[in-house]
Amino acid sequence: MLLSGVLSLTFLSLASLAGAGTVTYNWDVTWVNAAPDGFSRPVIGINNQWPCPKIEATKGDIVVVNLNNKLGNETTGLHFHGVNQINSIEMDGPSAFTQCPVPPGSTIQYKFLVDAAGTYWYHSHNMGQYPDGLRGPLIVHDPQDPYQGKYDEEVILTVSDWYHSQSIPIVQNMLTPANGFRPPFPDTVIVNEGGDGQINFVKGKTYRIRIISFAAFASAMLHFDSHAMNVIMNDGSYIKNNSANQLRVAPAQRYDVLISAIDRDRRNYPYLVALDVNKDFANDAAPVWPYNFTGQLVMDKKLNFTNDVVGAFRPQDDSNFAPYDDASAFGPVTKTLTMNFNFCTDQNGIGRACINGQPNIPQKVPTLYTVATTGNDNTNPIIYGAVNPFIVSASDIVDIVINNRDDAIHPFHLHGHQFQVMDRPRSGTGDYPGRTNGFAKKPPMRDVISVNGRSYAVLRFKADNPGVFLFHCHIEWHVEMGLTATIIEAPELLRGKTFPADHLNNCKLLKIPIAGNAAGNTVNVTDTTGFITVPDPNYIG
Ligand SMILES: *[C@@H]1O[C@H](CO)[C@@H](O)[C@H](O)[C@H]1NC(C)=O
Ligand SMILES: *[C@@H]1O[C@H](CO)[C@@H](O)[C@H](O)[C@H]1NC(C)=O
Ligand SMILES: *[C@@H]1O[C@H](CO)[C@@H](O)[C@H](O)[C@H]1NC(C)=O
Ligand SMILES: *[C@@H]1O[C@H](CO)[C@@H](O)[C@H](O)[C@H]1NC(C)=O
Ligand SMILES: *[C@@H]1O[C@H](CO)[C@@H](O)[C@H](O)[C@H]1NC(C)=O
Ligand SMILES: [Cu+2]
User: 12 in helix, strand or coil?
Assistant: First the structure.
């Protein structure tokens, strides 16, 4: 009796969790030699292999990554780009903000719910390591996919700029007074981390291509010969399917597109991935396209392979996409965060990227630990130091106004939310004039938006996810120059938050304080003694 009672109880609880499983990955982070473009160099891989493996789960699953840092000579960590981290902000991954770096020989466990389906990716958010290879796809399948039945197969297509030098010397050379604000230029473009870019196509079938940019600097123009891309999702948000001939995929952006293999003539169809190394392709007098990759939709290997030639790039305007569910703009807005971005120079004459005149300078105590340990003072921005803190409360509807005062396009990413793109006008529009007449009534949602040169974007989110969420340009080199703001969301709900022992142990090993204000002052948290106010010329974040 008792036994059968227990059994049926177990059966019931399993049944109620149907579809919600746990997927576990045990990963050693290791150095590997690889030659994705024919040039051999050390890259950061997983379990002695590179490219890094994909994470694959179903909406509602728990993902567990047991990470073991076997690099020997560098700290590490992982961020799960686009995963909201509901009730698990300590698993978001950026070093100095939500955790301490994982030192060589140590471990960390990441454990989080994948609450939303879509195409995501994971990457190191530590020491500029993702351009060195520590990145991979993170696919969350959807049992209620609204486009289910509209496609036959799935394909992952990653695009990236690629460098022959490692990130540390790249950043060291960039952060010198002589360099000014010049970003390092890539050596080439790769798809699928050095794959041949051949996608097998069968006439009449429709493919869902999950496009992910792993780039550190340059966007990728994408065009398929004779085949339109039927865009169904951008970043982690479904849109009403939209036919596009060209897309401009900025660093960290994703597009899910359906492509139906046409049944017309007997040939293979090339596609072009062209790196946009221009400041602003639309306005540059003579844009240059030095790095092209030609892939193939292969109908029959025995048929000819040709090149895809594009006369001019006119990518689809993603700010005009429509949300699949017709959701209206959140409102009314209760807080507006205005961020004016421009390049600037620090006290050592080094080129930096500033928000409202201030580059982000990571502090001694990870910001999330300051939130958790400073009680009622945690709503006071003073205690966080020069991390460009912006405090929002649990009930806020927030507009981020980002004014881009530089000539180039910059792709801004928000952790922890899909934001609504209220407005993203063309280059040369100037600062946001405060008028809302151009705002979308039913704005598309995503997590990386290209902000045009000398123009602005207005991005809206609901502060329903307590945490410390970075808002930053996803050009990795600009992160190293300080182009990051820190959104401290609903800190009043995070007072006294505790952290897993393995996370805290990494801080201990690295002698990083885990309580108090930015400098670790616990007695008087408004005492700013010890705050880092000048960027350390040798710091690589
Ligand atoms: C760590 O070791 C790898 C592999 O030998 C090397 O390529 C890399 O440059 C080293 N990193 C540092 C910071 O010395
Ligand atoms: C959406 O997909 C349907 C079915 O394939 C198609 O008829 C329609 O033209 C598409 N709409 C757009 C805007 O691409
Ligand atoms: C394939 O290429 C060869 C060599 O350029 C050419 O002679 C041939 O006509 C092409 N075949 C087709 C089917 O286009
Ligand atoms: C890359 O492709 C573009 C568009 O077709 C073309 O204008 C450009 O010349 C190509 N670049 C190279 C180096 O072939
Ligand atoms: C805390 O430090 C601030 C800044 O130094 C100072 O103004 C304030 O008086 C101090 N408060 C206490 C209680 O000591
Ligand atoms: Cu940037």
Answer: helix
Give the whole-angstrom CA distance, residue 511 versus residue 531. 16
DSSP string, 171-191: HHHHSSGGGTTPPPPPSEEEE
Q: How far is the CA of 390 from the centre of ligand 5 (A)?
A: 22
Q: Amino acid identity, residue 363?
A: Q
Residues whose CB is less than 8 angstroms from the CB of residue 377 and which lie 6 or more positions away in sequence, other chains included: 383, 517, 525, 526
Q: What is the enclosing helix (H) or strand (E) of 293?
A: strand 292-298
Which two structure tokens, joined as six digits, stand for 363?
């502090």
- 69 & 160 share domain: no
pTM of the model: 0.95
Cβ neighbour number for residue 499 with a 10 Å cutoff: 17
Note whether 103 and 205 are same-domain residues. no
Domain membership of residue 231 as a residue range: 153-320
Q: What is the pLDDT of residues 473-524, one digit of tens each?
A: 999 999 999 999 999 999 999 999 999 999 999 999 999 999 999 999 999 9
- Residues 458 and 369 placed together within one structural domain of the fold: yes
Under 8 Å between Cβ of 274 and 291: yes
Q: Whose CA is nearest to atom 6 of ligand 4?
A: 289
Q: Are strands 206-213 and 397-404 parallel, antiparallel or unpaired?
A: unpaired
Choosing from 44, 48, 73, 166 the residue with most ligand 1 atoms within 8 A of its CB, the one to mutate for a pocket test is: 73
Q: How many angstroms separate the alpha carbon of residue 244 from the centre of ligand 5?
A: 59
3-state secondary structure of 479: helix
